[in-house]
Amino acid sequence: MALRRLGWTIPAAEGIRVNDRIVRMAQEQAGRALRSATWRAGVTAGILGTWPADPAHRTPKEWDAVREAIPGGPDLPSSIIKARTRQITAFIKNNGRLPDEVFELETAPRVARMLLLSACDGQQATIERADEPGRALLRFQLPTRPVPRSYADWTWVACPVSLPPTIPPGAVLHLPTLRLHLGRVRVDLAYTHAVPKARRTGHTVALGVDWGLNTLLAAGAVRMHDNGQITALGTGGMFRAAGVLAKQHRLRRLSERLYAKADHYQRLIADDQQHPLTGTHQVLRDEIGFVSHRRSNLNDALAWSAARWSVDQAIAAGATVIHVEDLRSMEARGMGRTLNTRLSQAVRGQIVDRMRHLAAEVGIAVVSVPARNTSKHCPQCLTPLRHRKAPDRPTTPGWKWARCPNPDCRYQGDRDAGAWRRIAARGLTHQANTVVDRTSQTMVIRSVVDKLEAEAVVTPTTAKTSRDRSKTGPTRHKATRPAPRRRRAPSPTGPCGSAGKRPEGHAHTGRRRLPRAAHRHQGVTTISTPTTGPHRPHGAALGAGFHLHAHATPPRWANPCQTLRLTRIH
Fold first, then answer.
1. What are the φ/ψ torsions at residue 112 (nearest 5 degrees)?
2. Which of 235, 526, 567 is nearest to 401 (CA)?
3. Pick from 195, 519, 210: which is nearest to 374 by CA?
4. Where are the alpha helices (H) located in 73-230, listed in sequence order?
5. Strand, helix or coil at 15?
6. What predicted TM-score, i.e. pTM, was given to this entire model?
């Protein structure tokens, strides 16, 4: 309707009879394409107008200038600006000049084959629930011939739709969008149902979610007491998807090789349609499409599972808000080519979108929190942490294990475990500054206030001790044992004169080798495996026991009667 008010109306071709609802669907789809093109044109024009001296490294003044030139630039992720800058740099390398506008950088957009029934009313399409539970009936008009000449060439078609179990029985169904997917018709169905309203303020229990280096997600709950003190509710939990991320990495590398080979074949074929490599090139293009579908489905499944796990953590802890650090502008650097690529390919945006959808159904707010210094400072005293490779290697530089140098604090723990405490505490102290973004309609905390940040400390619930209790060496006492070691003392006599059991004895099972671990390539290696010295367990060489990889324990909340459903992806 906005296009019609602007006078951008196009009638149907001469000799074709369609009703006004069909024209509305076409205009709606064209309007979406124009809106996307307008946004890309604004971003490109802003970058071209403030082109930096060194496109690879902008100065702070150049960053401020480009954000001012782009519509909505202050809230635009820097990764989008850098990606568009790289695209312009490639154009300069090929053509020797700057492009005039976005239309020189991109080809004409392709229009998807879909029917936007949501732009119509009851004269074109209707949907209602069927008599059977979990079924709906969609009725809409379709032409009976490729070129309809009159309204008599249109007829009503009824399509039964199977509803997924996630749609509540009392939800109101809306007209869907029909699209083709692998030769089948898919229905993107929207529905409405009443849910509890999420609050912006007034939270006392919050769940902090950190995008980890050791794991995909690390989460835990904290509570703010009446006196302003913040304490942690348990040790938190971790969502590990190392197997899924490794498979995604393999598919990405396969896709890159297929693209390189297809581009090479395209250069050899040029414009010759009778070239012998034409058939092989088409096979490669089809295989690229299949690999892309696999990557998309894998990302979608991972995003839903991670979001479901996070919301379940919040429900189990009784939290009314989930604080997620805002990493839209994060770029992985300095951690090796493989780890940098995997972190950059993580589906953080999809996970947050699914998390907001699932949390809204139970009235839990999801708030984005600034990610500044969440892993750098101690959650108990805000002192800059010293990151090491492992707790038993305090002098080896790394990023997995964090130690606080403050002698009055002595905090140490996994880097991700400290980060979720900082995120949750920061969200609770800054909850009065929570605003709703105009464009995305999501709750965000835009900046960190130093006065409130000084109060965002997590008070330890255990008594402090001057003794270092980290497991870095033997834990047995050196004093003489009151009883001799096993097999030096005879077995005690059992009841009725039967033979007893030896102290510390083990039953002989006939097994000569230790069982192999179910999963040798775990992503968490917090405790390193000793390779030298007298203590070298055989299980480490065979891949059995916790000596090869130390895994995080499941969450333990303050109330032991609460149960928690954990999800793990293989």
1. -70, 150
2. 526
3. 210
4. 78-95, 102-105
5. coil
6. 0.70
Residue positions counted in the chain: 570
The residue written with tokens 């150049």 in the block is 62
Q: What are the angstrom distances between the C-alpha of 446 and each of 265, 277, 326, 443?
A: 49, 54, 9, 10
Distance between CA 488 and CA 43 in Å, rounded?
Answer: 80
Strands 172-173 and 191-192 come out as antiparallel
User: Which tokens sit at 250?
Assistant: 């393999």
Structure tokens at 5: 């008010």
| Residues 116 and 175 sit within 8 Å (Cβ to Cβ) | no
Residue type, 176: P
Task: Decide: 439 and 457 in contact? Cβ < 8 Å.
Answer: no
Edge to edge, the sheet with strand 177-181 lists 114-116, 177-181, 184-188
Question: How confident is the prediction along the chain (570 residues), in pLDDT tens digits per residue?
Answer: 777 788 877 777 888 888 888 888 888 888 888 888 999 999 999 999 999 888 888 888 898 899 899 988 877 877 788 889 999 998 998 888 999 888 888 888 888 888 888 888 888 899 999 888 889 999 988 888 888 888 888 899 998 999 988 888 889 999 999 988 878 888 899 899 888 899 999 999 999 999 876 578 899 999 999 998 999 998 888 888 888 888 888 898 999 999 999 999 998 988 888 888 889 999 999 999 999 999 888 888 989 999 999 999 999 999 999 999 887 655 555 555 555 555 555 578 889 999 999 999 899 999 999 888 888 899 999 999 888 888 888 788 887 888 898 888 888 888 888 999 999 999 999 999 999 988 778 899 988 998 999 998 999 876 555 565 666 666 665 555 555 554 555 555 655 555 555 544 444 445 454 444 444 444 444 444 444 554 444 443 433 333 333 343 444 444 444 443 433 343
In this structure, what are the phi and psi dihedrals at residue 137, rounded to the nearest 5 degrees? Answer: -120, 120
> Which residues are paired to 274 by β-bridges?
none
Is-contact 359 366, C-beta < 8 A? yes
**Type of residue at 38:** T
Contacts of 150 (CB under 8 A, 6+ apart): 17
Let me know: does 207 contact 319? Beta carbons within 8 Å: yes
**Beta bridge partner(s), residue 231:** 223, 459
CA distance 232 to 6: 56
Strand partners, 279: none
At 21, the amino acid letter reads: R
Inter-residue contact 65 to 46 (CB < 8 Å): no
